[in-house]
């Protein structure tokens, strides 16, 4: 099994705009060490995280009900549209990355989040039914494996790693998903079930030799589910992706340290632009603001390294750097964020002669 890449910068997935060729050009130009398949949610629900997952499901028909996806008796025009948009994205990736050799990444909505956001035919969230959720995880795992194989045919020299996005994991395991009636919440999923359903998606991918990254943008990630695996050997080379701007390092450091000790890796999200593009959010020159945001992001990474007790020269070997979630609204912000995280990774590797020394940054 391939390990998730470290020592590099990459994106989470979503980008602004509705043109696949422009999106993959931005990715390839600014993140050449680990490009990823873009997601363009501005095109509508057929192209966002859930729509993309629905498009790869096997034997689980669905339809768009105007506000959310719902299980259906058969696939209709909405699923065909979602599949057509995914095909357009992959055509653009294939064209731009022809001849590319090295690690590359694709993203897919995880089974717990998909079950929280996909309705059963009666209107309840799929996660309210354990049998339905298990079937959904199996279907998603099979479809994701086929999706990976398709990308391998299209860009055969790339070493694909798969990112599983679980933004709703914590809501699922703490029982805070509202019921369709509006009264009360759906019962919490047990850790054992959550781990089993997540494995239903990651196992087929790992069996194909791809590396795995599980991404959570929660303020309090469910470390029990994220780090639970059948054996320590299964953890080697797998990465967890978390947002350093969202979590409490004091609370998360023990779990992160334990994960690293078991052979796992970390992808750490920081905001190097403070939500600004190259010209500043207010239309003024934003260079000084960008510099200040980049310095704060660098300090946050150094703070994490210090709390985890990792030597500076080893830190870059154990992590990758990403921007935070939510780059789907502004092309300048996305471009600046991608350039910023690449610069931060170079500084951590010691490639940037202008990097402040560790003592000053800490």
Verbal overview:
This protein is an alpha/beta fold and 362 residues long. The chain has one domain (20-361): TIM Barrel. It has 14 helices and eight strands. The strands form two sheets. It has a six-stranded parallel sheet. The chain has a two-stranded antiparallel sheet with strand order 1-2. α1 (20-30) crosses α3 (77-96) and α5 (130-154) runs parallel beside α7.
Number of helices in the DSSP assignment:
14
Structural class: alpha/beta
Beta-sheet strand percentage?
5-15%
What CATH architecture label applies? Alpha-Beta Barrel
Q: Would you summarize the structure shown here?
A:
By secondary structure, the chain is α/β, with parallel strands linked by helices. 46% of the residues lie in helices and 12% in strands.
């Amino acid at each position: 099994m391939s390990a998730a890449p470290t020592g590099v910068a990459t994106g989470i997935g979503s980008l602004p705009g509705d043109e696949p060729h422009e999106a993959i050009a931005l990715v390839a130009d600014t993140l050449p060490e680990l490009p990823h398949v873009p997601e363009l949610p501005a095109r509508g629900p057929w192209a966002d995280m859930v729509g993309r997952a629905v498009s790869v499901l096997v034997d689980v028909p669905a339809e768009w009900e105007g506000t959310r996806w719902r299980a259906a008796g058969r696939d209709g025009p909405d699923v065909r549209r979602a599949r057509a948009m995914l095909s357009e994205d992959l055509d653009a990736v294939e064209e731009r990355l022809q001849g590319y050799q090295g690690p590359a990444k694709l993203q897919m909505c995880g089974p717990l989040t998909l079950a929280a956001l996909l309705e059963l035919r009666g209107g309840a969230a799929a996660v309210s039914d354990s049998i339905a959720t298990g079937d959904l995880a199996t279907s998603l795992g099979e479809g994701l494996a086929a999706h990976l194989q398709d990308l391998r045919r299209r860009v055969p020299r790339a070493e694909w790693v798969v990112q599983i996005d679980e933004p709703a994991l914590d809501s699922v395991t703490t029982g805070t998903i509202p019921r369709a009636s509006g009264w009360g919440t759906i019962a919490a999923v047990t850790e054992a079930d959550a781990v089993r359903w997540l494995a239903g998606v990651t196992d087929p991918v790992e069996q194909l030799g791809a590396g795995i990254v599980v991404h959570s943008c929660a303020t309090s990630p469910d470390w029990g589910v994220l780090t639970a695996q059948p054996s320590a050997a299964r953890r080697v080379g797998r990465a967890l992706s978390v947002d350093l701007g969202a979590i409490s390092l004091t609370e998360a450091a023990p779990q992160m340290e334990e994960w690293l000790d078991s052979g796992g890796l970390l992808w750490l999200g920081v905001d190097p632009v403070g939500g600004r593009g190259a010209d500043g959010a207010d239309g003024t020159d934003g260079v000084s603001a960008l510099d200040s945001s980049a310095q704060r992001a660098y300090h946050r990474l150094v703070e994490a390294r210090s709390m985890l007790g990792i030597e500076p020269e080893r830190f870059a070997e154990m992590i990758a750097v990403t921007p935070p979630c939510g780059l789907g609204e502004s092309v300048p912000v996305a471009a600046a964020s991608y350039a910023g995280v690449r610069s931060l990774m170079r500084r951590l590797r010691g490639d940037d002669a202008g990097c402040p020394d560790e003592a000053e940054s800490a």
